[in-house]
Amino acid sequence: MTLDDSWFTEIYDEQGAAFSLSTTSRLHEERSTYQHIEVFETRGFGRLLTLDGMVMLTGRDNFIYHEMMTHPALFSHAAPKKVLIIGGGDCGCLLEVLKHPGVERADLADIDERVTRVCEQYFPELCASNDDPRAFLNFADGIKWVEDAPGGAYDVIIIDSTDPVGQAARLFAQEFYAACFHALGADGILVVQSESPLFHGELIHAIAGRMRGAGFASTESLYYPQCSYPSGWWSATMARRDGRRHWFRESDAGAKRFATRYYNAGIHRAALTEPEFMAQGAGRPDAPR
Amino acid sequence: MTLDDSWFTEIYDEQGAAFSLSTTSRLHEERSTYQHIEVFETRGFGRLLTLDGMVMLTGRDNFIYHEMMTHPALFSHAAPKKVLIIGGGDCGCLLEVLKHPGVERADLADIDERVTRVCEQYFPELCASNDDPRAFLNFADGIKWVEDAPGGAYDVIIIDSTDPVGQAARLFAQEFYAACFHALGADGILVVQSESPLFHGELIHAIAGRMRGAGFASTESLYYPQCSYPSGWWSATMARRDGRRHWFRESDAGAKRFATRYYNAGIHRAALTEPEFMAQGAGRPDAPR
Regarding the domain with residue range B7-58, which homologous superfamily does it belong to in the CATH classification? Predict the structure, then answer.
């Protein structure tokens, strides 16, 4: 069976799989200095943002990713006041970070201002906190931003990057994690999006290894569903300077004063649980059979 | 972008989404009395079994579904000896059930013998326990099988059905759950595959309601990833006659003597955790935006 041209399809060529969404119109298209930006209206997933033909987010399911990239890290720090988001130009992570009343300043550093401007227009719900006085949007190279940051400047750093290909590959390197380590306080936490457990389990182990190699005392991964990303199953990997693995402010998370749709204290604990094939260190469930 | 004819595509029309796998050959095709059975070789997912054009399983990711449809239910019963599987003609659930040394008899009742014969040929790894002396393969109507069963005949009943359309819709009805209730012992457990939390959250709540309406004292849902099923996120819903919600033999699960690739005691506990939108009883995260 073939899908006609009204469907947007992302092919995961290495995996021999593809995911498609039925679109009703293309609302926006441009080639910025850095990438090809498109916004579609879809039939069942709200609006769809793609960069260079890859799904960045849909209106329907981005809440899971954005909540899991932020709240576990923020509740894993005793009192996060200064937060840095690298990438994340759609502002969905920024929105979630600023739900924490203790946060005093959230810097976002994304190289492509056009992504943010497009999202302000087509995903206003994600940009609802862009005018918060605690929000600082910086359109700059994320790696240079971290390298230039004073030592201990941040409590939490969130790497909301694209896949580790092209320019974004540098955001998955041990050198970059070492720069993050330096920019974090003594009990600082780094969290990175770390791809699909089913497709990239070995990468998840590699990321954790590079984090420890960069000086972090402990790492832990969080697993969660994400329909519109490859395999429908995604991960974030956290690294801590102080090594308090799996500790988080569970009672604060249970008593949070803000709304979420996926995250809660129980989900935080649950998401930390390793599937058996990851716990065994295999990084992949098995050769296909 | 369109996919050429070498791709198998399943369209989730109501959702405006589709999932595709790159195939290299079609190994088998037949129209049985009940359905259209096909087996493909894929490029990245091992072999693919479809019924009436819908993905039943792939060699790469079926382990998650089969482990989560069986081990949580069996470890939630104090001493399961007699197990019934309705549907499940691919024998993947049967394989997992028979890993439990305490199981004395496992009946499978699937209406279509051809599915099992095809799987014996193309998915021998799933059928490895079909010759176990404790395994009884019955090619019969599952509803009639349950209705004819003596009261209290089973400790665990597993409903490994297709989606709730056509004939399979009867397997999601309160009347059927009432028949299962009768066929279970006083501490018996029913578990059913209950579709996608993202796409069918309201159905998950409805299934639980029907189970309680049929007499079960408590229900609980389990959430897990399943790449090749709609949305990549799936669920099973359990019902208990004795109402011991969330109780399971955690130390037995932790000390299990058989291999799994997804399930472990921690995953069991984690899978029981409700995402916030399900905990709030909404059944859907939000209208698409």
Answer: Spermidine synthase, tetramerisation domain (2.30.140.10)
